[in-house]
Amino acid sequence: MWRVFADYHTHTRYSRVGGTIKENVLKAKEAGLEEVGIADHGPANWGHWGSTSLADFDRIIAESRSVEAELGGIKVLAGVEADIVSYDGTLDVLLEMQRKLDKVLAGFHITVKPRSLEEGVRFMAGRLLAPVSDRIYRKVRNENTKAIVEAIYNNEIDIITHPGLKISIDTYELAKACVKRGTALEINSKHGIKSVEFVKAAAREGACFVIGSDAHSPDRVGDLEPGLRAAQLAGLTADQILNVREE
Ligand SMILES: [Zn+2]
Ligand SMILES: [Zn+2]
Question: Tell me, which fold does domain 2-246 have in CATH?
Answer without folding.
Answer: TIM Barrel (3.20.20)
